Amino acid sequence: MRFWSLLCLALLAAIQAPAQGKLRELLSGRTPEGFVERTWTVEGVPRSALVRLPADAKAPTAVVFCWHGHGGNSAQAIRSWEYDKADTTSILVFPQGLKTATPLVDKEGRMPGWQPAVGAEGDRDIKLFDAILEDLKKERSIDPKRIYSMGHSNGAAFSYVLWQARPDVLAAIGSVAGSLTVKARDLQPLPVIHVAGENDPLVKYAWQQATFAAVRRFNACTEEGKPWAKEGVLEATLYASTKGAPLVTAIHHGGHEYAKGSTALIVRFFKENPKPAK
Predict the structure, then answer these.
(1) Within-domain flag for 128
(2) For residues 179 and 211, what is the distance between their CA atoms, to the nearest angstrom?
(3) Is 70 exceeded by the pLDDT of residue 22?
(4) Residue 265 counted as domain residue
(5) CA angle 264-240-188, nearest 5°?
(6) pLDDT in tens, 117-146
């Protein structure tokens, strides 16, 4: 009996080992393969990001900024979102946040995150975006019609902040479990894809629905949407725009997680929505 018990335990450990290894990899802060850590000093403060530069990028290249959620880090976001596997041709930038207070989960500001509004935190993260993009333009041919921003939770909210701050720079934004955190009276039309969980306990689904309504208004979108895609657990609906700035809402029945299928849909949406030629 003891032999069989030990054998069963050994088999169980063998089965669990890959999953445990994956968990250790996700929690690890080491630089993922294909990325390099780069640093900038923004108004005297050291900042960093993990950057993936495609080796064969000869033509003007797209740039995608990917902002982790509050309390996360850039390495974890790379490993869990797998954006680099879905998009092999763009320059990918995963910045690292600084300690930031948020009334939802971290009132003392002990964990890393992003400024919640234009003008907050001295605009430190908008300035980081500017510094990174300026450096990339010096060393690579960047396609000005394909500069994008996406993120999860606080990082998604910051993509909405960047829409307000840099509408002439961005071609489109992607939000997973985020929202417009401040009231914006008038925003320049910009394509948006927004992933939301109907049972999100943190960024309430009602708040995200209010964001959908605001985006449709800013972008002059139709009130009625049409099916756009199904991916993972997501059902995506397209709201066409008379100003060339569609909204896609991708809904699932879960909560605040980075839902399965989010990356594939965001990559597709970005590729379909370069900035129109002037």
Answers:
(1) yes
(2) 6
(3) no
(4) yes
(5) 90
(6) 999 999 999 999 999 999 999 999 999 999
Decide if pLDDT at 8 tops 90: no
The domain total for the chain is 1
pLDDT at 13 over 70: no
Q: Give domain status of residue 75, yes or no.
A: yes
Tell me how crowded residue 255 is: count the other CB atoms within 10 A of its CB. Answer: 15
Mean pLDDT of 241-250: 97
Secondary structure class of 63 (helix, strand, coil): strand
Residues 6 or more apart from 208 whose CB is under 8 A from it?
177, 178, 179, 194, 196, 200
Could you tell me the pLDDT band of residue 266, with boundaries at 50, 70 and 90? very high
What range does the domain containing 218 cover? Answer: 30-272
Task: Tell me the percentage of the chain whose pLDDT exceeds 90.
Answer: 81
**Nearest-angstrom CA–CA distance, 97 and 107:** 16
Mean pLDDT of the chain: 90
Residue 4 belongs to a domain: no
Q: What letter does residue 121 receive in the DSSP assignment? A: G
The CATH number given to whatever domain includes residue 250 is: 3.40.50.1820
Q: Are 154 and 179 in contact (CB under 8 A)?
A: no
Token reading at 199: 């049972």
Tokens of 45: 């403060």
With beta carbons less than 8 A apart as the criterion, state whether 248 and 265 touch.
yes
Q: Are 174 and 230 in contact (CB under 8 A)?
A: no
Angstrom distance (rounded) from CA 21 to CA 54: 27
- Give yes or no for residue 157 having a pLDDT over 60: yes
Query: To 10 degrees, what angle do helices 154-165 and 124-139 make?
Result: 70
